[in-house]
Design brief:
Distance between the termini: 46 Å
Number of helices: 8
GO molecular function: methyltransferase activity
Number of domains: 1
Strand order of the largest sheet: 3-2-1-4-5-7-6
Radius of gyration: 16 Å
Structural class: alpha/beta
Bound molecules: S-adenosylmethionine
Family: Belongs to the methyltransferase superfamily. RNA methyltransferase RsmG family.
Shape: globular
Main location: cytoplasm
CATH architecture: 3-Layer(aba) Sandwich
Order of helices and strands: HHHEHEHEEHEHHEE
InterPro entries: rRNA_ssu_MeTfrase_G (IPR003682), SAM-dependent_MTases_sf (IPR029063)
Enzyme class: transferase
CATH topology: Rossmann fold
Number of strands: 7
Oligomer: single chain
CATH class: Alpha Beta
Length: about 210
């Protein structure tokens, strides 16, 4: 059973005029996500509080240009952000066929002309254009994620990763990869405090 939308007033303020599209996406994911193997059995009941609201908190950090979301899975955060920021172009990079089928069908069903989906792993990403920003959530630890994503960003582009409570430990463990990728301005931002049920921790850095 899909969650009754948590914090509807907060959701409406974060999505603005795009809230009905977000509701449409959440309804479809809540109803079909488990059967399609996109989300676990516990997730429909906490779709808004744990997933949708957390992802949309990233929207104000994005700038006009091309954002690549690596390992989009069910569309978290790629489709959520594609809905919230129609002024930004998104490339969702996902290797699993079933998930790619879902991402493409939702992109078409929701009429997201600013979103395209590539079936690939980040390290084999086939496009030529370099990204202004790269997002990822729950794909791997920073020490593995940085080497496969930093080469996808333009000089001056940003890595913007959603991370869990142990981001501090991950940062320490990734010191070598941060140096090798020549990242600067490395920071951890906490978003949504006092606004949403679960805060979002974001690793952000600029690629030289
Ligand atoms: C745990 S899921 C998370 C999905 C989604 N980002 C979320 O937060 O619900 C990890 C996703 O990353 C994808 N993935 C794993 N390795 C990858 C790689 N090297 N490049 C791109 N995607 C990858 C997987 O296929 C999977 O869909």
């Amino acid at each position: 059973m899909a969650e009754v939308e948590a914090e509807p007033a907060v959701a409406a303020s974060l999505f603005g005029e795009r809230i009905e599209v977000a509701r449409d996406f959440a309804r479809e994911l809540g109803e079909r996500g488990e059967e399609l193997g996109l989300i676990g059995p516990l997730e429909p009941a906490r779709l808004w509080s744990r997933h949708i609201l957390n992802c949309v908190l990233l929207a104000p950090l994005l700038r006009p240009g091309v954002v690549g979301d690596i390992g989009s899975g069910a569309g978290l955060p790629g489709l959520v952000l594609g809905i919230a920021r129609p002024d930004v172009d998104f490339v969702l990079v996902e290797p699993m066929e079933r998930r790619v089928d879902w991402l493409r069908s939702e992109t078409a069903r929701l009429g997201l002309g600013n979103v395209r989906v590539e079936r690939a792993r980040a390290e084999d990403a086939p496009w030529v254009e370099r990204l202004d920003q790269v997002t990822a959530r729950a794909v791997s630890s920073l020490s593995k994620l940085i080497p496969i994503t930093a080469p996808l960003a333009k000089p001056g582009g940003e890595l913007v990763f959603m991370k869990g409570e142990r981001v501090g430990d991950e940062l320490v463990a990734a010191a070598k990869q941060i140096r090798a990728a020549r990242l600067r301005g490395v920071e951890v931002i906490v978003l949504g405090e006092g606004i949403v049920p679960e805060v979002t921790r974001v690793f952000r850095a600029t690629v030289d």
